[in-house]
Amino acid sequence: MIIQVFLIGAIISFIGSIPPGTLNLAVLQLGMELKIKAALRFALAVSIIEYPYAWIAVVFEDWITASPVIIDNFQLITAIVMIVIGAFSIWSARKPSDFSIKFNESGFRRGLILSILNPMAIPFWIAYTAFLKSQGWIDLTTQWRVHSYVLGTSVGVMVLLTLFAFLAKRLSSYVKDNRVVKLIPGITLLVLGTYAFIKYLL
Description:
With about 200 residues, this protein is mostly helical.
């Protein structure tokens, strides 16, 4: 059962990290810029933060779901972060400053900051964990199973982001020195953040 919950956590994390977001777009950008080591450090930082966020979702599921205002605020925070990071990415791509260069090249610290500012992992894991438990696919009645499941979530996101980094590296020769391509991650984040903000207001 421990291996089963680990694998399920890893698979759901891998699939759930595919849609465009702050973290995987940042990894794609690093990969296209051939900064593979920074991309891997970024992925490691993300997987580290994924662990406590998934653990909070599993352990405090009843308390968090009993307070819908908390979930709503997660969405608002994520929308704001995506808009700010998107605007920053566009600005740094057009007019690179010493700070933006250092921030974009610092894989691990950048990954930590963006992961901490991306709390939507908590409601994501609340929803999927509740579904998996209702279907009888996972049993988290012991601490060993909980931590095995949570570890799987970290491994899943690490594997996906690593894959993204190397796939982006293969595309780098087609987009090398293309300023428009460098703007795409920032524009995508702006669009997604604006959409999430409008959805929150409605």
